[in-house]
Design brief:
The protein is an alpha/beta fold. It contains seven helices and ten strands. The protein has helices spanning 46-54, 96-106, 111-124, 140-152, 170-187, 198-204, 232-238; strands spanning 7-18, 21-31, 35-39, 61-66, 69-70, 81-84, 158-162, 190-195, 207-212, 215-221. The strands form two sheets. Strands 6-7-8-3-9-10 form a six-stranded mixed beta sheet, sandwiched between helices. A four-stranded antiparallel beta sheet has the order 2-1-4-5, with helices on one face. Helix 2 (96-106) crosses helix 3 (111-124) and helix 2 (96-106) packs parallel to helix 4 (140-152). The longest helix is centred in the C-terminal third of the chain and has 18 residues, at 170-187. The model has no long low-confidence stretch (mean pLDDT 90). Residues 6-238 form the ABC transporter domain. Keywords: ATP-binding, Nucleotide-binding, Transport.
């Protein structure tokens, strides 16, 4: 974590088993406004980590602190953490506008204020003309922008992203990379995202961690991803050899 950043999230020795997925003594901190990428293979526990921070699972061991507060007894809907699922998970029977507004309605925001907030964020994300459409009529990029707007409408200080660009074509990805840069600046929120894409991690993150078989190997500055003195297991995952690190 950048020493100049105020600590926002602290995951402390968290362990958890869910079926074939496990987390083993995960320990890291995330600063306010920082972007951290967790790289790992399919089945390494990346999504389980995000779901545990969000509140879908309780750690068997360890604790998670958010803004200095232990999240153990705080239900997910009270954590004020934005979460963008890999499949977006929008309500198909609701319009784009209704999907975006969902978080505000759950907080009891009045209809007029809700409409104003939805129109403002939809315009900012370039989907203002889609508010009356339904999710299944949207392109992949439009669905992604809608899901991001829904996740950010309540202004959470932390945004969790699960493989956010895996299903998108290269051109759409580039546009959303730029949008994510703008989100970081405008909303001043920290971002924790998981991915298997090395380029994506280096393009977006300040720091990158490697998660293999439920174990967080290390977290390094993004610029050091291919020069850090990784162990043999991580070198193999990154496609490196010991000779290339000399």
């Amino acid at each position: 974590m950048n020493p100049s950043c105020e600590r926002l999230l602290a995951v402390q020795q968290v362990s958890l088993q869910r079926g074939s997925f496990a987390l083993c003594s995960i320990d890291f901190a995330l600063g306010s406004g920082e972007v951290l990428a967790i790289l790992g293979e399919t089945g390494s526990g990346k999504t389980l980590l995000l779901e545990t921070i969000a509140g879908f699972h309780q750690p068997a061991e360890g604790q998670i602190l958010f803004k200095g507060r232990d999240l153990h007894r705080i239900p997910l809907h009270r954590r004020n953490i934005g979460y963008l699922y890999q499949e977006y998970c929008m309500f198909p029977h609701m319009t784009v506008g209704e999907n975006i507004a969902y978080g505000l309605k759950m907080r009891g925001v009045d209809k007029k204020s809700c409409l104003h907030e939805v129109q403002a964020i939809a315009k900012r994300f370039g989907i203002g003309h889609l508010l009356e459409q339904y999710p299944l009529t949207l392109s992949g990029g439009e669905q992604q922008r809608t899901a991001l707007a829904r996740a950010l409408i309540t202004h959470p200080p932390l945004l969790l992203l699960d493989e956010p660009f895996s299903a998108l074509d290269p051109v759409t990805k580039q546009g959303l990379y730029t949008l994510l840069d703008e989100i970081r600046q405008r909303y001043d929120c920290a971002i924790l995202f998981v991915t298997h894409d090395f380029h994506e991690a280096r393009r977006l993150a300040d720091r990158i961690g490697i998660l293999l078989e439920g174990k967080l190997q290390a977290i390094v500055p993004a610029a050091e991803l291919f020069t850090h003195g990784w162990n043999e297991t991580v070198q193999e995952f990154l496609g490196l050899t010991p000779a290339s690190l000399l």
